[in-house]
Amino acid sequence: MPEYTVLAVVAVLVTIALERWSGTRLFMRLQFWLAMAIVFAFQVVVDGWLTKLSSPIVLYNLEHHLGVRWPWDVPVEDYLFGFAMVASTIVLWERAKRSRRADPEQPPAVAHDHVEEDRWTQGR
Amino acid sequence: MDRYQYLLLMAACLAITLPLEFVLGARVYRRPALLVTALVPVVVAFSVWDIVGIWRGHWSYNPLYVSGIDLPLRMPLEELVFFVVIPVCGLLTYEAVGRVLRIVRSLRSGANADA
To answer: Which chain A residue is nearest to residue B47, measuring alpha carbons?
Structure first.
């Protein structure tokens, strides 16, 4: 398998491990998946611009990825890269928020900032 | 102007997501300590990945569309900007979605109370 493809899959696996370790249960929340869907939609546009073969900003070596590009000329590996980057940021953000809340040295969190479980995940 | 294309694209991402902070009340920029805590490991990890990618020849950057300012280990400045800007956009989206969901839920529970 091409190197970029392997690294992109590894990055997603590391992100899944990070989410489990963090105890945030972010992958069970509607808020997270809705945000990721919006990020994905914008990624298609931004990444489409970066990778378009007519006048690319970033050039990919065909040796190191699958060569599957969709839509336009976006290498599919980029979606794994993007997911890993944004999801792990949100995991670390949520984790930092919670540890701050648990720390008595810090001022109490503001009211609207409390943790909510999504109803749709009940029973899973 | 063309050589600022990548940087301008990043600026556009920041501009488009700015209302999430100030209209929808995402409160990402207004929690800088939290933001730095979440960002630093991601910026470091993805910069390492980028440098490995450049070194192994996975990708390269079109000199026509980048500023030409290189950081150590041949990483273009634009890539560092990318690893800050895109995660910030992700956090703004995540927090804004949270705000909207809370508003929807409170409206719904208000409607239930009226019924």
So the answer is: A85
